[in-house]
Amino acid sequence: MKLVKSLLLGSAAGLTIVGGAQAADLPVKKAAPIEYVRVCSAYGAGFFYIPGTDTCLRVSGRARAEYGYIGSDNRRVTGGGDLSGFIGLARFNFDARTQTGYGTLRAFLRLDAASRTGNTKISSGTNLRGGYAFSGTGQDQFGRIQNFINVDKAFIQFAGLTAGRASSFYDFYAADYEIIGSSLGSNMPSTNLLAYTQKFGDGWTATISMEDPNYRKNPIFSNAVPSPAAGAGTGALSQVLTTAPTPIILGTDAVGNATSVAFIDAVQRSRMPDFVGSLRYDAPWGSAQLSAAVKDINTGGFISTLGVPGTGATANANAQALLAARGISTGSQTDYGWAVQGGVKFNLPFIAPGDGLYLQGSYGEGASFYTGINRFTAGYLSNASVYAGNPFNQYLADAVVNPLTGKIELSSSFTAVASYLHYWSPEWRSAFYASYGEIWFPQGARQATSQANALVNSPSTVAPPSYLTNAAGYNLSQSLRDTYQIVTGASLIWSPVKDLDIGVEGQYIKTGVRSGRVSDGDKGTFVNNVPTRTVSSEDVFQARFRVQRDF
Predict the structure, then answer these.
(1) What average pLDDT does range 399-407 have in this prediction?
(2) What is the pLDDT of residues 11-61, one digit of tens each?
(3) Rounded CA gap, 222 and 464, in Å?
(4) How far apart are CA 325 and CA 20, in angstroms?
(5) What is the C-alpha to C-alpha distance for residues 279 and 198, in angstroms, rounded to an integer?
(6) pTM for the full model?
(7) What distance lies between CA 199 and its chain's CA centroid?
(8) How far is it, in rounded angstroms, from Cα 213 to Cα 543?
């Protein structure tokens, strides 16, 4: 037994030694090192290092719900009678920064997506025309249901350069304190640009920016609409053409009405960028900025004639002769609009921590988008209703082609806004703002337009709206009337916890003609081509409730 036991123990020991040697000879696979996310404190809270890189990234976002109301007592017009509106919005932000020998290299991305329904100040036609929104036809094909997609920001900053999609360097206040965000003044949250900013020290910076012109073009006034049955107040000569034609008068009758015209293409092409410059100062007491912009306004060539003797080549030759007699060689021309703006912000911690006051004013010629006179009414339209079913339209064209001279004549506009933010307590705050603006047009061009409107639409026997050829009627027409607008409001916002806002804002809007009266497009009719009802102004109230969480 002792011998057997010794043999068994010896065999086990031998197997252990052999097995251990074989295990030691096998290759060992080492575990990959774990990449832990590290906090990056160089650029403020929320940044972390992207694993394996020296780039710091901050991811943030927003969820927003809004419920709106606007007065509209007219249910007889398209889109009229809508009182309520709803918005659900999602925002995603990505901020990536890397320190280099030239300073910070930054890339910033912001994507907004929203569902918007209801009245025309929520399911915005301006954003639809600007390519931010696409419509659902809904139950009545009016498109009061919209999905909103916007690449709000996508820019790179490096060594003073800003390239991509960013806020315009012309803007200053940009409705910072508001919920609805439609006070009069320049506010282009997103445009495509290439800019260089130079820092001078002591808070001074200067920027020169080349910006996308398509976001700041309001149309040239066109004397044509797609239908001979033009509505009251359109001030339009009826022409069914694929472009937006405007006439140059070639001949007149004994009383001065046009007997023949040549039409030019009034659609503005994208021919050169807008150029913007700004000078800014930032200090503990606040900030100030002076900015300026210049943009081109252009028309195309001749596209047709009306009332010219002859046909084909003969008519063209006759038209050219009549144009030459007027000193006009071509319909294509370019003019330049411009705008200037000044603004100042005061920090007012001695009233309450967080309090601030903005003051801003802007003036321009041929630049209604820069002055922001169309901020509440509409953009990318020659004229627009203040709300669906309103008594008259506000005209907003950047320019008019004078039918007598054939030359581009610019509209003029200005706006001024004051906005004050006050904290009643750390959890409660209110904004109070008021803005005023005016836009006016060359009166010679308006009167010449009435002469062009007297021409019958040939070869059709249908005449343009007859009240336009009647002196009393045309004097009361809404076409190219000088107007003013007031937009003012107040809000109350509760922030029970950090980054949560629950608030409501009310807004009052008044629009009117600077002098005289215009036909009432809501309730008025015409007798002997003269309107039976006239108005000098209109007003409306709207309110919006918001719940917003930032993270």
Answers:
(1) 88
(2) 444 434 444 444 445 555 665 566 678 999 999 999 999 998 999 999 999
(3) 14
(4) 111
(5) 10
(6) 0.85
(7) 29
(8) 33
d(CA 533, CA 93): 52
Distance CA 487, CA 30 (A): 69
CB 180 within 8 A of CB 507: yes
C-beta of residue 359 within 8 angstroms of C-beta of residue 177: no
Q: pLDDT tens-digit profile of 424-445?
A: 999 999 999 999 999 999 988 8
How many Å apart are CA 508 and CA 71, to the nearest integer? 10
Burial status of residue 364 (CB atoms within 10 A of its CB: 0-12, 13-18, 19 or more)? buried
- Angle, vertex CA 186, rays to CA 183 and CA 190, nearest 5: 110
- Nearest CA-CA partner of 346 in 282, 404, 264, 391: 282
Cα(356)–Cα(344) distance, rounded to whole angstroms? 11
Per-residue pLDDT tens over the stretch 115-166: 988 887 888 878 888 888 888 877 776 677 889 899 999 999 999 999 999 9
- Sole residue written with tokens 């086990």: 12
**Opening angle at CA 102, ends 99 and 103, nearest 5:** 45
Number of Cα atoms under 13 Å in the Cβ half of residue 342: 0
DSSP state of 466: G
Tokens of 304: 């047709």
Q: Distances in Å between the alpha carbon of 175 and those of 84, 102, 348, 434?
A: 23, 34, 18, 11
